[in-house]
Design brief:
homodimer, about 220 residues, alpha/beta, Rossmann fold, Arc Repressor Mutant, subunit A, 2 domains, 5-stranded parallel sheet, 7 helices, about 35% helix, elongated, DNA-binding
Chain lengths: ~220, ~220
DNA sequence: GCGATCGCTTAAGGGCATCTTAAGGAGGGG
DNA sequence: CCCCTCCTTAAGATGCCCTTAAGCGATCGC
């Protein structure tokens, strides 16, 4: 199972660069530009967080501090501040590593790898949506505590929606990314999988139809 | 339980300083000036190794490389070399962190702390999964107390799954990491090993098939 | 309200991933 | 040089589940 990494970086250029390198290195990467997007419900599923503290100063550290009240996810801090005091402050707030800008992408990758090499923390926390629990690493799902057997496509489909909670995902995107992209007539196939998925998640009306667009997963709840 | 830290540093001034700060921070510290002193028998008992690569160049990296053949102890590397290539090389050889000289002792302390915050790793204790007991160090396995003879590949395969308990591990990853990575048609080979492994672990249905993905070891002691 | 479009459900068929068994061959120890 | 262990390869059997098709139901534009 590939590790999922969340990158919080408001600089477009740097963000693009980081994400590109991480993907090249084989990591599944999600890039957000605002620290506010680190919500309790959004973090589960990620193995590591790359957090740029930005320049405004305290802002980034506040995010980190708050984050540590509800999550133990490993955090690699990026910052332009090179002073010892700044680093110490970040570490004391729970940072796992601290990299000063500018840096070489190769070093970032290796530091991420070094952090993930340790098996104990490798697994992201399971995602939760109402009565649904989704463990991306184990590829296991359960509804209200009861395990639910999902096929490969069913799981991938659910995971794809789960990673873009509240967002309407187009049929085309799902067909291209979850199903075999080579196939043509995958439109109807998708219906079938969604149908079966809904039946298996009986009782939980999580997958909403967005008419003429695709589907949307009802928002996750912060455990 | 205070953590014990081994420091390899040949510079007297710097060594004194490091040890002083570590002790001040509450760590039990042992200081050696020669890397040769990192013997397989000496390492157990230490939670972390601070390793100065010194200037002579390759010497320190060789120590690290050799070390990794028999120990998984976390290693924080100190070095005067600041280039990206040097850092990447160290990480690839298994370093967990890399600090360039000169540095502030506070940062070293915090990096050591950040590293030790994470759950203590396997300290030689055997892993347990249901009736299976797996000693990675001794390469011994037993089922319900009875020793089971595993071949090299079988043990590595089981160990690979065990170190990622509960996680769905892809066939490709297993083929690349457990079997000879150069080979091409290793897909079928994997089946055979899994099959034999299951037979030897008779009674314990530990290795689950994740259809279309790979395999998963049923969780015994998760995270 | 009506037709057209889009989505849902059920059922059936077959492709293909996986399992098992058997035999070939490489490497190490005696 | 022979034997033994064990990794690999091959081939056939098994059955999972992806896809396709077809009819019904829902929704939208007018």
């Amino acid at each position: 199972m590939t590790d999922r990494i969340l990158v919080i970086e408001d600089d477009q250029r740097l963000g693009t660069q980081i994400v590109e390198h991480l993907r090249e290195a084989g990591f599944e990467t999600l890039w957000r530009t605002a620290g506010e997007l680190i919500l309790p419900g959004a973090l589960p599923g990620f193995s590591l967080l790359v957090l740029d503290l930005m320049l405004p100063g305290k802002h980034g550290l506040d995010i980190l501090k708050h984050l540590r009240t509800y999550s133990q996810v490993p955090v690699l801090v990026l910052s332009a501040r090179t002073s010892s005091a700044d680093k110490v402050r970040a570490f004391k707030l729970g940072a796992d590593d601290y990299l000063t800008k500018p840096f070489w992408p190769e070093e970032l990758i290796e530091r991420v790898r070094a952090r993930l090499r340790r098996p104990a923390m490798q697994r992201g926390e399971p995602l939760r949506f109402g009565g649904l629990e989704l463990d991306l690493g184990a590829r296991l799902a359960s509804v209200r505590g009861k395990p639910v057997e999902l096929t490969r496509v069913e799981f991938d489909l659910l995971a794809a929606l789960a990673q873009r909670t509240g967002e309407a995902v187009t049929r085309k995107w799902l067909a291209d990314n979850v199903l075999d992209p080579d196939k043509e007539g995958t439109e109807r196939t998708l219906d079938v999988h969604v149908s079966r998925l809904r039946k298996k998640l009986e009782g939980e009306e999580l997958i909403e139809t967005v008419w003429g667009i695709g589907y949307r997963l009802r928002g996750g709840s912060p455990r």
